[in-house]
Design brief:
Keywords: Membrane, Transmembrane, Transmembrane helix. This protein is about 75% helix and about 0% strand. The protein is mainly α. The protein has one domain. It is elongated and about 70 Å long.
Length: about 210
């Protein structure tokens, strides 16, 4: 049976979805911003340490005696250019969609993990949809339907690694390509499944504001 805290979170999420101010949401946004800053700083420090480690390891390799063939340089540039286009398109479109849907100020952020899981189950049809949850499930579906642009962004990153490997083959660059490629191969079917389920829910539950 839902507790008073659950009811309060559901009501707060609906308030955010309706565009009303929420102190709980603003507190979460401020906390997430600080966590994001710490994460970015940590990743930058880790990247610098990794770059020094790779440079030290590569410094032990014997220098190349011949220049890279022209075809390899041309192929690397072509792949890198394609990668930049995909990364730019994927990141820009995803940013615009996320911003339109509220970004960090999504009503889903004031719900706990169990409540978000319930909305996902309602979207997938594994549990009946509560009528009062339909607007929140629609919001979740809109966010999931836009995740295809994340795949395009990740494909662009993969092509960047491929271009680096073509231009200057090495074991660690090949490892990046293989690991990242396997990651996309695992994630892509899951994202596509969520996208199909989200679009099905949106079609079955049209926005009443648009329908009217």
């Amino acid at each position: 049976m839902p507790s008073a805290d659950d009811d309060a979170r559901w009501a707060e999420a609906q308030r955010v979805l309706d565009g009303l101010p929420s102190e709980a949401l603003e507190a979460r946004v401020r906390r997430w911003r600080w966590l994001t800053i710490l994460l970015v700083v940590g990743l930058l420090l880790l990247s610098v340490a990794f770059a020094f480690a790779v440079a030290a390891w590569a410094g032990d390799e014997p220098p190349a005696t011949e220049d890279e063939p022209l075809w390899r340089e041309i192929a690397a540039l072509a792949v890198a250019a394609s990668a930049l286009v995909l990364v730019a398109v994927g990141s820009i479109v995803q940013w615009r969609v996320t911003r339109r849907l509220g970004g960090l100020r999504s009503p889903l952020t004031v719900l706990d993990r169990r409540q978000r899981k319930l909305l996902l189950q309602e979207l997938r049809g594994t549990v009946p949809v509560e009528p009062e949850h339909v607007p929140l499930v629609r919001h979740l579906a809109e966010r999931l339907a836009a995740q295809q642009w994340l795949l395009i962004f990740q494909l662009g990153l993969l092509l960047m690694f491929v271009g680096q490997f073509i231009g200057s083959p090495s074991a660690w660059r090949l490892g990046f390509v293989v690991v990242f490629g396997l990651g996309i191969a695992v994630v892509a079917p899951l994202v596509r499944r969520d996208e199909r389920q989200a679009r099905r829910f949106l079609a079955e539950h049209p926005d009443p504001r648009v329908a009217s």
